[in-house]
Structure formats: structure tokens, C-alpha cells
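Entry 14. Structure prediction run on the chain below.
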Amino acid sequence: MDKPIIAISAGDPAGIGPEVTVKALDDPEIYRICKPMVICDAQIIKQAIRFSRLRLKVNLIDNPGQGLYSYGTIDLLDLANIDMKIFSFNQISAMTGKASVEYVIKAIELAMGKKVDAMVTGPIHKEAIKLGGFNFAGHTEILAHYTNTSRYAMMLADGDFRVVHVNTHISMLESIKRLNRERIIHVIQLANEALKKMGIQRPRIAVNGLNPHAGENGLFGDEEINHIIPAIGEAQNMGIQADGPHPPDTVFPKMKGGQYDVVVCMYHDQGHIPVKLMGFHYDHKRQKWEGMSGVNITLGLPIIRVSVDHGTAFDKGGKGEADPGSMKQALRYAAGFAKN
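Output returned:
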């Protein structure tokens, strides 16, 4: 196929989303692997180009077919939904929260309509989108709603270090209540299918336990016995190379060392913490983030969606200091998925 067209929703304008977007598109490698187009407010993107000191032009388009897709020019679908007279960085606001969701919805519409081959999302802020009138916990829930998808999962990846979650944006108590064999099997299947699309013919999948020491044969809880072990057995009967349950404190070094291609995690932080430990680098002496890598991939959708694996970082908005590493990695992942 020709290079895939990828729609980028730039994220909350008050944060670093627009900045990492324009910085990523200042890399000619991105244009060698895909045709990126941005969905945002034109004044916000032009402002990000200025304070990032980049020599990029903007080509306003009404649809993906009008894009030039040439390095040095950003093809931009302008939703014109920010009033620059009242806009400011580093603030949670209804205006920017609403705008950020509108960018995502437009990208979904284009992907569902086969106008683009994939979408990449910049960071949004949960409180801001709620102020903007949208009652979603995050990107995953927005995507599920507008694609009419009921069964999905979140994968985080930094290079070959990958996790996929059984539960995400719910409380620990609710995560335990919702844990069941059927959901675990479905997530294992989604992980297996996603890795095959990445070119891994026989994915090696580790499945975590929920409790300390993976329950220690019922000593520290029975969720492993009642739900996780039966799910692993059923997945194996399907021909999937899955094993466990593993104690979470030892399985991640094994994946890092190359033993596994992905770890299935039972709840949000069980997966998020190790991936961000791998990809996020903070310098305490300089009191600044030195780098952020890693991506978020929503599995089970009828479209391809990859996101940066960091937040809006309102404290860094407008300073020109944001690292575009995660956005570049998201574009590479999206291009790879689209080609497969």
C-alpha cells in the first residue's frame, strides 16, 4: 500500500500536545513512513511552531485528500474552536477540554469513514473534558463510545516492552469485583492478535496474578484459582502461547530480558508503572523530565488508534521544552499497524 494517512488529534491546547505534535512533524523520518495530518485549532498550531522555533509552514485543509504530505509543511484540519483572547497555558478549562475531545471525535469520524488509515492522539485532561461537557474517563472510553465498541483493552508499549490491561480506569475495589475468566481470556486474545499484526508470528504472553506472589496457591487470595488460571488454560487450548499466573514483581524483568513479548496485567497501575519506569526519565538535580517514550494502543477497535503515553503536562505548556519522543513512537507504531 501507499504510505498510510494518519490523523493526529493534537490534545488539550493548554498542555504540551500541540508542541510535541509540531516537533514530531519536524522530523523528515515521519514523512518517509506515513502521511500525517493534524486536527487542531490553526492559531494553536502556529503558536506552537513559533515558540518551538521551528521553520514549518501550515497548509489548511478541509479533508485528507487535500493534504500535501510534504516535509516542512504541516497539513492542518482547523476546527477553529479556541478563542485566543481568553486562552492561556497551564490552566484546566472547559474550552480547551471541549476542543480536545472535538479533535478526537473528528479523527474517529475520518478513520471510521476510511478517509484516514489510522489515528494518533495527543494528551487530554480528564477534568478539562468533564468541564467541557463530556463524561468520559479518558481516550479509551471516548473511542469505545464513538466506534460502538464494547470489548476493548489498553496496551502500553515502549519498544519491545509491552503490557495490556484487563481493567484500567476504575478503582482497585472495582477492579477486583470485575475480574472474571471471560474478560481475561478476551484480553489475552486481543494481545495475541495485536502482536501478530506487529509481525510476531507466535507471541509469548505472560499473565500476571492479582495478589502478592500470584496468590501463593490461595494463601493470599483466590482470584488466581477461580479466574486467572482457568482463563490461561482456556487460552492455551486455543493455541495461544500464554502462561502464568506470574508474580508481578518478577515477570517484568523477564520480559525486559526477552522471555516474553507482552504481559497481561490485572489493573491500571500494575501495567502503567513498569512501562513508565522504562520510558520516562526525570532529572532531580535539574528538576525536569529529560525524556518520555512509550505509546498507548487501544485494542479491539474497528480502527487503528495509538497515543502518546504521557499527560498534558500543563506546567510545561508553551515553554518549548517538551520531548516529542512518545509522539514520534506513536506515529511509527500507527504506520506499522496500518501497513499490516
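The CA atoms of residues 81 and 99 lie 6 Å apart.
Filed with the rest of this week's runs.
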